[in-house]
TrEMBL record:
Alphabetical list of Pfam families matching this protein: Hist_deacetyl
Source superkingdom: Bacteria
Keyword Hydrolase: yes
Descriptive protein name: Histone deacetylase
Family to which this protein belongs: Belongs to the histone deacetylase family.
SUPFAM superfamilies membership: Arginase/deacetylase
Keywords assigned: Hydrolase
Domain Histone deacetylase: 22-289
């Protein structure tokens, strides 16, 4: 069964002016339900993640400041909005949804978090609307509970997964791969195990060629027993922040190739949705929904 972490709190805890990008967290499941691709049984609402699991990844002082809403104003500006209890609850639920998704992926092959992809959060910092790094937290959870021994994080958001790279810089059991815009946020990059920095305006044809030349070799080399996939749709030509030139169909082809590799090698995959900032929200929703449609078609 295709299992999808979804909670209305994903869409509604943000200050006015930040809500438009978050509408997709409501619209994606609504569209999939409308199409009949899923039923309410496919959706699950995660609880808040416990502190001990968060502290496997994030620095205790940093997390204490988040939880107590005492993070200095300069650090809050780096995140992009002022802290609130609702925001911290949201982050903890997102992280728990990704962990729950790992269990479902191990059972069914693939699972989704409608939110997630908070890859700019490092061990002791938040940045770019990210405070707790959901896939990093989940990767450490799998390792700590001996549910995985070799993990591959495939980050295809248009922005480098700088927080994820920093968190795992000394962890040989997690291989971080980020394929992103070279001239895009964050302007101070961290070093992933593999960074593929793309020039502005890269076409879908070139993008797919690079991905196909890289990913199958990477899986063969690393032999992961679990994959995290960050499937940001800010690679679209319509994206106001992206600087790349993929069409919706080329974005779909990207997802299809990633899923084919997971299936071919019998590796469970947890998918977090990442970014998408096209001015017309229907482009964002359609591109994200394609990822769900493909998973349903290919696994179920």
């Amino acid at each position: 069964m295709l299992k999808i972490a979804f909670d209305l709190i994903y869409a509604h805890p943000l200050p006015e002016g930040h809500r438009f990008p978050m509408l997709k967290y409501e619209l994606i499941p609504a569209q999939l339900l409308h199409e009949g691709l899923i039923t309410p049984d496919n959706l699950f609402s995660p609880d808040e993640l416990d502190d001990a699991t968060i502290l496997l990844t994030h620095d205790a002082d940093y997390y204490k400041q988040l939880a107590e809403l005492t993070l200095p104003p300069k650090e809050q500006r780096r995140i992009g909005f002022p802290l609130s209890a609702r925001l911290i609850e949201r982050e903890r639920r997102i992280a728990k949804g990704t962990i729950d998704g790992c269990h479902y992926a191990r059972q069914y092959g693939v699972a989704f978090n409608v939110a997630g992809g908070t890859h700019h959060a490092g061990t002791n910092w938040g940045e770019g609307f990210c405070m707790l790094n959901d896939q990093a937290i989940a990767a450490n959870y799998l390792l700590n509970n001996k549910l995985a021994t070799s993990i591959l994080i495939i980050d295809l958001d248009v922005h480098q997964g700088n927080g994820t790279a920093q968190i795992f810089e000394n962890e040989t059991r997690v291989f971080t791969c980020s394929m992103h815009g070279a001239n895009n946020f964050p302007y101070r990059k961290e070093q992933s195990d593999l960074d593929i920095a793309l020039s502005d305006g890269v076409t879908g044809e070139e993008y797919l060629s690079i991905l196909k030349a890289t990913l199958s070799k990477l899986i063969a080399q690393q032999k992961p027993d679990f994959i995290f996939y960050l499937s940001g749709v800010d690679v679209l030509a319509t994206d106001k922040l992206g600087k790349l030139s993929l069409t919706i169909e080329e974005c779909k082809a990207r997802d299809k190739f990633v899923f084919e590799q997971c299936l071919q090698h019998h590796i469970p995959v947890q998918v977090s949705m990442g970014g998408g900032y096209s001015p017309d929200i229907k482009h964002i929703v359609e591109a994200h929904c394609n990822t769900f449609r493909l998973a349903d078609e290919m696994w179920f």
